[in-house]
Amino acid sequence: MARTALVTGGSRGIGAAISKALKAEGYTVAATYAGNDEAAAAFTAETGIQTYKWDVADYDASKAGIEKVEAELGPIDVVVANAGITRDAPFHKMTPDQWKQVIDTNLTGVFNTVHPVWPGMRERGFGRIVVISSINGQKGQFGQVNYAATKAGDLGIVKSLAQEGAAKGITANAVCPGYIATEMVMAVPEKVRDMIIGNIPAGRLGEPEEIARCVTFLASDDASFINGSTISANGAQFFV
Ligand code: CAA
Predict the structure, then answer these.
(1) pTM of the predicted model, to two decimals?
(2) 108 Cα to the center of ligand 1, angstroms
(3) Lowest CB count within 10 Å: 80, 193, 194, 218, which one?
(4) Which fold has domain 4-230?
(5) For residues 50-87, b (16+ Cβ closer than 10 Å) or e, as one string?
(6) pLDDT category of residue 1 using cuts at 50, 70 and 90
(7) How far apart are CA 26 and CA 37, in angstroms?
(8) Ligand 1 binding site (Cβ under 6 Å of any ligand atom)
(9) Domain extents in the chain
(10) Ligand 1 centre from 110 Cα, in Å?
(11) d(C-alpha 168, C-alpha 238), whole Å
């Protein structure tokens, strides 16, 4: 029977590419989104992938949403915690609200997404957790104290989950994308973006599909002994 995969933030940007790639590999995919009904409807019309609306920052909503997905599509075997936001500002201008929004969505959102599926994965003796972190969690970034903190935190989450899940057939790994051609990066002021691209040895932004291929690999049986790892895909911009 086809495995079921849940992709948070799965109807746009990198998440949409991941949802499509998993579907192409034969998974039954559920893609979540937070607010953009129009984009989600267009995504479902284009791909046939079912979308579900909830806020990953809300534990109760996540738990209820996951129960609905499992009732409709079956137990979730693969979780891709991809949903994330930016609220960039230099630290001296960053507000407590900008800090909190990013922590709640990007970091607590991973807890809220993985925690409800974890007991079922343990019982069934199989699970794949892939968390989409970022190059900026590895190196930090001017204007992203909040975002970098969450993306570095994601790496702590997967390294810990890997140790807890290994004996139960569950792997937890991270992908650290560099700068990828998505709306999130396009929202960076053009002057700053040009400067960033100038610092990427590949001389270009990455494509969402280049991240999706990392995810399908980590979700596959081929990656069964890879646990607690990070795949960096950044065009040689940064090495750990
Ligand atoms: N390094 C050093 N100095 C920088 C800088 C940088 N990267 N970016 C800005 N500055 C400097 C500016 O030159 C300016 O200096 P002066 O005052 O001396 O001229 C000062 O910081 C303030 O700059 P701004 O006037 O632009 O300040 P602002 O408040 O309007 O905006 C900012 C600052 C929000 C950080 C803006 O520069 C920005 O958006 N930077 C991009 C941050 C970034 O890389 N975000 C990544 C988004 S994509 C993503 O997150 C996906 C992923 O995982 C990779």
Answers:
(1) 0.96
(2) 25
(3) 194
(4) Rossmann fold (3.40.50)
(5) bbbebbbbbbeebbebbeebbeebeebbbbbbbbbbbb
(6) confident
(7) 26
(8) 86, 88-90, 93, 134-136, 141-144, 147, 179, 184-185, 188-189, 192
(9) 4-230
(10) 26
(11) 33
